[in-house]
What does this fold into?
Amino acid sequence: MNTLGADAQGENIVELSGVTKEYAGGVQALRGVDLVIAPGELVAIAGPSGSGKSTLLHMIGTLDRPSGGGVRVAGHAVADLSDRELSALRARHIGFVFQQFHLAAGVSALDNVADGLLYGGAGLTERRERARAALERVGLGERTTHRPHQLSGGEQQRVAVARAIVGEPDLLLADEPTGNLDTAAGAGVLALLDELNRAGTTVAIITHDLEVASRAPRRVRVRDGLVVADERAEVGSR
Amino acid sequence: MKTALAPARLGADDVLRVGLGGLRARPARVVLSALGIAIGIATMVAVIGISSSSKEDLLRRLDRLGTNLLTAKPGDTLFGDKAELPESAPGMVGRIGPVTAVGATGSVTATVRRTDRIPDEVTQGIAVQAATPDLLGTLGVGTASGSRLNAGTGRYPGVVLGSEAARRLGLDRAGGQVWIGGRWFVVVGVLRPAGLAPEIDRSALVGWDAARRYLGFDGHPTTIYERSTDASVGDVRDVLARTVSPEHPEEVEVSRPSDALEAKAAAAGAFTGLLLGLGAVALLVGGVGVANTMVVSVLERRREIGLRRSLGATRGQVRVQFLAESLLLSAFGGAAGVVLGAAVTTGFALWKDWPPVVPVWALGGALAATLAIGTAAGLYPAMRAARLPPTAALAAP
It folds into this structure.
C-alpha cells in the first residue's frame, strides 16, 4: 500500500478517500468523503449538528472504522490494523482535545498531562518530566500541582491540550475545544492551538461555530455527510 | 518504511497506580464495598483462630497433665447394687510392675460445713472423701495454700480442700476450721485445680486413718488412681480390673481421664461448620457487593474509558485496569478482615486465658479467598469496560 515508502514525516497525515459510514438503523452519516490533511496544516472542520462532522472526527481519530472507502492516518491504512494496532496508532500519532476536557478529578495538572504518555511505554519519571515541559508550552508552568477544580475552564482546556501534545503527536485533533468556554477563554485556547501550529504541530479543529472556523487558514465545510467546501485563506490573511 | 505498530506494555507499577487512582476517586464507596469482604474474612479467620486457640489450650493442658493416668471405680454387681472394691486394692495396684504411683479416695457419708450452725443438709455439692497419702502426688495436684496431707496430718482431724470446695466454703487459704461429721477439722491446705480429676476439686479430703477413726469410713476405696510409664498404659489397663478385684473384675470400671480431654481437643479443632459457613456466606455477599460496585463504576466511567482508549489504551489494558481495581478493593477488605479476625481471636483467647493461635494456613486461605473473590467479581465488569467503544469519550453526557 505504502508504495512511496516515505516515513510519516514526508506524506500526508490524514488521507480519506470515498469514506462512507452507515450506522445501524440505516443512518448515512458520511456519504463519500475525500479529505487530505498535510503536515503543518491548521484545518477547521465545520458543520452544523447532524452534518456528520462528529463521525468524520471518529474516522480521522481512528476511534471508529468506516463502512466503506479508505482511511490512512500517519501512513497506516486503518483497515489493515487490528484493534491493538489502532490503539498504538492513537498512542503515538494522535492527540485528542475534547469539549469537556476529560481531566481526572483530584489529580494534579502534572499527572493529568503525564497520563497522556501512560500508554506509550515511558516510565513515570520521564512522563512527568515531559508533562512539565508540555505544561510550560501551554503557559501553565506555574500550575503543575493544581487540581482541575482549582483551575478555570480555560486553564483546564489548556491542561487537556498539554496532555494531547505531550507525546508530540503528528496530529492534534480538537473536538469543539471552545464549546464549554466563554469567549475570552475560548479565544485563548484557539490562540494556543494557533501557536502550536506555527511551531509545527498539525491541528484539526472540529466545530459547529463558524466564527471559530473562520480563524483557521483552511476551512472544510461538512453538510449532510459530504464535504461541501474546502477553502484556504490567502497568504497572510491570518 | 513505516514503523510497525505495537502497543507498549503497561508496567505492573502503572497498573497499580491506575487501579489505586480509580479507587481514590471514590473513597466512601471503596470502604463500604470492602467492608463486606472484611466482615466475611474476619468471621472465617476468627472462627478458625478461636477454635485453634481452644485446641491449643487443651493440648497444652493435656501435655502438662499427662496421658498416663488410669482410674478404677466400682461398677454395678450382677444384681444391680453398687459394687465394693476390696480394701487391699490400692496396695495390689501398686505391685503391678510398670505402675509408678497409686492413690485412692473413699467416700465418706459425712458432710462438710463452715460451722456447726449450718444445717446438715446443706452440702453445697462438696463430697467428703478419705484420701491415701499418695493421692495428691499421683494426681500431681499442688497446693495453693498450706500443705498436703502427710502421714502425720492424715491421722488427725485435718482436711485438705479442693479448689472448688474451698471457693464454695469461702475459704481461700489454709488455717481455718470446718465442721465435718460432728467435729471441727483444721484446714491443712487448699489445692489448685486438679485438671484430670475434677471430682477432687469438689472434695474435702480427710486422711485415710482419720476418716476411719472420726467419720466411720469403712476403708473401701471408691476411686483408685494410678500412673505408669507412658509406654505401658495399655498393658496396665488390661490387668487393672483383675488386680483391683480378683474375684469380680467385671465389677470394676477402668477409664483414662485424658481421653475425655483428648476428645474435647479434637472437637475444638474441628471448628464449627455452621459459623464457618456463615463467614463464607458473608464473604460471598461481600464479593457480590464488589461486583456491583465495579459494574456501577464502569457505567459511570464510560467517558474515562473512552478517554483512555483515545490516549492509546488497548482493550486488554482497560480490562487489566478494572480487574486491578476489583482485586485491590477486595485485597483492602481482606487485609482489614485478617487484622480484625486476628484481633478478635487474640481478645477472645486472652479473655479465656488461652494461647492465641491464628494458623498460617488460615491467613493463606484468607488471601487466596480474597484474590479469588476479587477476580471473580471484577471479571465481568472488566469485560464490559473493555467492550466499550473508544468513541464513548465523545458521547454526549
User: Anything to note?
Assistant: Chain B has a mean pLDDT of 85. Chain B touches chain A through 35 residues (CB under 8 Å).
